[in-house]
Amino acid sequence: MKRKTKITLAALSAALVVLSAAPRLVQAEDSQTITLKDDIRTVVLHGDGTALKLTTHEGTTREALLITEDNIGCPLTSSVQADGDQLQISVEKGPMRIGFWCDPDVTLSLPEGLNLEIGLSNLAADIKGSFERVSIRTGQSVIDFDGRAAHFTLEGRRAAVRLNFPRDMPREAVELDVDTILSQVTFNGV
Fold it and tell me: Which residues pair with 158 in a beta bridge?
C-alpha cells in the first residue's frame, strides 16, 4: 500500500473517532430538583424519543431529581408542570438538529410508590425501582425494567424488553400489547 493511501486512511479513521466522540465532549447538562406536593400520585413523561435512566429512592423525601443532557447539534428542552395529582414532564428535541447522533439523555429519580406513565415517540430505558402502576406507550423501545409494580403495561409497535418482577407479582398484572416484540420476562426479583 502506498504511503499516501496509508496516511489518508489513518486520517479518515482519526476523523471518525473524533466525530463519534464529539457529541459526548460537548454535552450540556441541566439538573433540577422538584419538590412534590403530597397530592402528586402520578409522574407523566411524554414527548420526543429519549434515552432514559429512571430509579426510585426510599424514604419520606418527596422530591424528584431531573437531569437532562443534550449534545451540540441536538438540543433538548424539558418542562415540568403540576396538574392535579400529576407531575407532567415534557421533553422535546429542538428543531435544528445537526448530525445523526441526536440521542438526548434524561435521568430521573422519583420517590417509591408513584404511578409512572411514559409516552415517548421512541425510548431506550433502564428503569429500576418500586412503583404502583407503570404504563409505557411508545413507537419503538428497548427497555430494561427491574422492579416492583402493582400493574405493568407496555404498548407499542416494536420493542425489545427485559422485564424482571418480584416472585410474588401476579402474572396477570403484566400486559404487553406490542405488534413485534422480543422479550425476556422473569419473576425472580426480591
Answer: 140, 180
Q: How far apart are CA 45 and CA 55, in angstroms?
A: 14
d(CA 138, CA 121): 5
* Owner of C-alpha cell 407479582: 169
- pLDDT tens track, the chain, 190 positions: 566 555 555 554 444 444 444 444 445 567 889 999 999 999 999 988 888 999 999 888 899 999 988 766 677 778 899 999 999 999 887 766 565 556 678 999 999 999 999 999 889 999 999 999 999 999 999 999 999 999 999 999 999 999 999 999 999 999 999 999 999 999 987 6
User: Is there a contact between 149 and 110 (Cβ–Cβ < 8 Å)?
Assistant: no
